[in-house]
Amino acid sequence: MTFEVRWRPFQLDPAMPAGGKDRHEHLISKFGSLEKLKPAQLALEQAGNELGIPFAFARIQRTPNTLNSHRLIRWSHSLGLQDEMVEAIFRAYFVEGQDLGDTGVLARIGDAIGMDGELVEELLNSDADIESVTQQDSMARKFGVQGVPSFLIGGRSLIMGAEDPHTLAEMIDWFDQHVKGTAAAVR
After folding, report:
1. Using one digit for the tens of pLDDT, what is the confidence trace for 82-104?
2. How far is CA 107 from CA 66, 71, 73, 88, 119, in A?
3. For 106-160, what is each residue's pLDDT tens digit?
4. Are 92 and 109 in contact (CB under 8 A)?
5. Sheet containing 7-8: which strands, arranged edge to edge?
6. Contact partners, residue 26, CB within 8 Å, separation at least 6
7. DSSP structure class, residue 58
8. Fewer Cβ in 10 A, N or C end of the chain?
9. Are strands 183-186 and 7-8 parallel, antiparallel or unpaired?
10. Taking a C-beta distance cutoff of 8 angstroms, is the pair 107, 118 a contact?
11. First CA to last CA distance, the chain
């Protein structure tokens, strides 16, 4: 079985201002209080620790608009670096607490995985691919994506929510045998 995993744009909050928001203010407006969020964050931190992912939510000071992150992920695909880019962005935000709304931060992330950091920053400061990333986000919503993770298999079958790898592999294998498709992760 051969398939391609492709990360596609989906903004959890497309109305987020371009400069992002203060993290605490955003969480309070979304959940009512920081106390309501603590059990979920603790559960994520514990699960992360079991998997060797040291989530550090307390380090995050700003909730970014993720449009530029999605543009960077798009560009990294053409260089065969998309998985590395997604991992680097996740690590920068969830472990290191970096501000992903800062184009300099994104340029350094791109540079660290093998992209031309100066070119990345120049492109991020332009309108390059804003329209196409926004259109892909819109298409995901029309297809029924409501959150992440979501998996689109063969352009036809949508699976929303976390699934264990074995279940996903079985679904991809079934689809490959019956429909001959490919898998794309929507992010």
Report:
1. 999 999 999 999 999 999 999 99
2. 14, 12, 12, 12, 8
3. 999 999 999 999 999 999 999 999 999 999 999 999 999 999 999 888 778 888 8
4. yes
5. 7-8, 183-186, 150-153, 157-160
6. 63
7. G
8. N
9. parallel
10. yes
11. 23
